[in-house]
Amino acid sequence: MAIVVRGLSPLEWRAQSVYQVMTDRFARTDNCTTASCDLGSYCGGTWQGLINHLDYIQDMGFTAVWISPVVMNLDVLTADGSSYHGYWARDIYEVNPNFGSATDLVALADALHERRMYLMVDIVTNHMGFAGCGGCVDYSIFNPFNKEAYYHPFCLIDYKNETSIEMCWEGDNVVSLPDIRTEDSIVQSMWAKWVKELVANYTIDGLRIDSAAEVSKRSLQDIESAAGVYSIAEVSNSDPSYVCAYQDHISGALNYPLYYRTTAAFCSTAGNMRALERGVNTMKSTCADTTLLGSFLENHDKPRFPSLTSDISLAKNAIAFQMLVDGIPVIYQGQEQHFSGASTPKQREALWLSGYDTTATLYKHIGQLNAIRRWATLHDDGYLTYKAHPVWTDDHTIVMRKGSNDTMVVGIYNNLGASGSLSFNLLATSSGFGAWMQVTDVLACDTFVTNEVGDLEVSVQDGAPIILYPTLQLESSNLCEF
Fold first, then answer.
1. Contact, 253 vs 232, CB < 8 A?
2. Where are the strands (E) in 227-322, listed by range?
3. Chain CA centroid to CA 441, Å
4. Both 252 and 371 in a single domain?
5. Is 115 labelled as part of a ligand binding site?
6. Is the separation of the CB atoms in 180 and 94 below 8 Å?
7. Is 184 within any annotated ligand binding site?
8. Which residues are annotated as active site (predicted)?
């Protein structure tokens, strides 16, 4: 009998770890791992291909999969490329046939639920997509928003002006993105009807809402309410106050302010750790609940971290910090293979060309991090709501603590690079460790003992991150052979 697992509340999403899939670039139905991919066009990834490779995702420790928008898009090749990404909708009541059939999408949801995993779907309520200039749109081709009255008058966005951000159009005059009047009550009811049916028809467990800063905030609240599932907003802005304000209207938001600070701190040996410390503290004091934010280091819109540095130790530190700080960790496909694409569309590589290598350094690293997060969650009822905080920072190091006494995770992160090393005394007043306490680095599987007051001499080698956890709590964890 199939196990039905669906309908997670926002609070239940805290415990999940999300793997972001760009459907067209993850896996083909024929399982081919050598097919070439023109990054501006459809490359052949499908929902069935994703089903075929769920082991690859689950074995890394992920409990949820976020997929590209599922609706029918414009179907022409333009100077801006094709709609392989899913963000140029034409008919929201039909699925994108390039990814498969409605039956295939149902099968994907079922396959995830049978594994006790969850499905998050990307949706776009801000705009549709038209191959042509903003002044020559044929609105009749869209379903259901098939009249010009459903849209704001054409104007390209001035991102320095908040009114322009909500009322003007993304895109350009090659592919224009007609901007829907999401503040209109009729439009809101149309979106509510659609999203309620979408979630029900495909047993969707969560939503990611694209271009959330470009729609009315009230519409985000209406969408999440109608959907009845946790929703997370894309608000691409580095200002904590700007992003945190969205939690007054929707449960979650992608943590862009911390993304920018994490990237800056770890992308070179000259990164600013103190700015990262301030960023963590500012997000905690500004947002309603940082534990409901999405914590990420890469996505399909931003340059991949390895495009900024090839240093594997810096990547390990950045990923570990991202995954163990407050919030729901999100890993973008290819991150585990150390893909290095920079500007769009170069960061949208076909994952199958990696051969789904489960021996890759970062594949195993991410699996370890998911495992310690899951174990800490099981052994501390308050772990997920405990606000991680910096307990010690210097020019190259930040030490973070999350969790209660005797079940705390203490992360020691650095930007020294693969040739770097350092030693310092971690005080018990910072870590919370007790006297003569055994603690294990669950990444390197080395065990240490604190001194008579709980202090610990820490030695960083080869720029590796260190994740310390009380050794006595590791029994039966399968971490480090315990």
1. yes
2. 230-233, 252-253, 294-296
3. 26
4. yes
5. no
6. no
7. no
8. 210, 234
| Residue finishing a domain among 314, 344, 379 | 379
- Give the C-alpha separation, 164 to 26, whole Å: 35
What is the bridge-based pairing of β-strands 252-253 and 230-233? parallel
Q: What are the Cα distances from residue 460, in Å, to 420, 456, 465?
A: 8, 13, 8
* Structural domain range at position 411: 389-474
Closest CA to 229 of 58, 443, 9: 9
This prediction has a pTM of 0.97
Judgement on whether residues 58 and 84 belong to the same structural domain of the protein: yes
Does 348 belong to an annotated binding site? Answer: yes
- At how many degrees (to 10) do helices 185-201 and 217-227 cross? 30
**Per-residue pLDDT for the chain (482 aa), expressed as one digit of tens each?**
333 445 688 889 999 999 999 999 999 999 999 999 999 999 999 999 999 999 999 999 999 999 999 999 999 999 999 999 999 999 999 999 999 999 999 999 999 999 999 999 999 999 999 999 999 999 999 999 999 999 999 999 999 999 999 999 999 999 999 999 999 999 999 999 999 999 999 999 999 999 999 999 999 999 999 999 999 999 999 999 999 999 999 999 999 999 999 999 999 999 999 999 999 999 999 999 999 999 999 999 999 999 999 999 999 999 999 999 999 999 999 999 999 999 999 999 999 999 999 999 999 999 999 999 999 999 999 999 999 999 999 999 999 999 998 899 999 999 999 999 999 999 999 999 999 999 999 999 999 999 999 999 999 999 999 999 999 999 999 999 99
Annotated binding residue 88: yes
Dist. CA 294–CA 212, nearest whole Å: 14
Domains contained in the chain, number: 2
**Cα distance between residue 226 and residue 389, in whole Å:** 35
> What is the rounded CA–CA span in Å between residue 288 and residue 112?
31
Q: Is residue 232 part of a domain?
A: yes
Q: CATH no. for residue 51?
A: 3.20.20.80
Q: In what order do the strands lie in the sheet with 130-131?
A: 130-131, 175-177, 170-171
Give the type of residue at 357.
Answer: D
| 225 and 346 housed in the same domain | yes
Q: Kindly report, residue by residue over 312-335, the tens digit of the pLDDT.
A: 999 999 999 999 999 999 999 999
Positions marked active-site: 210, 234
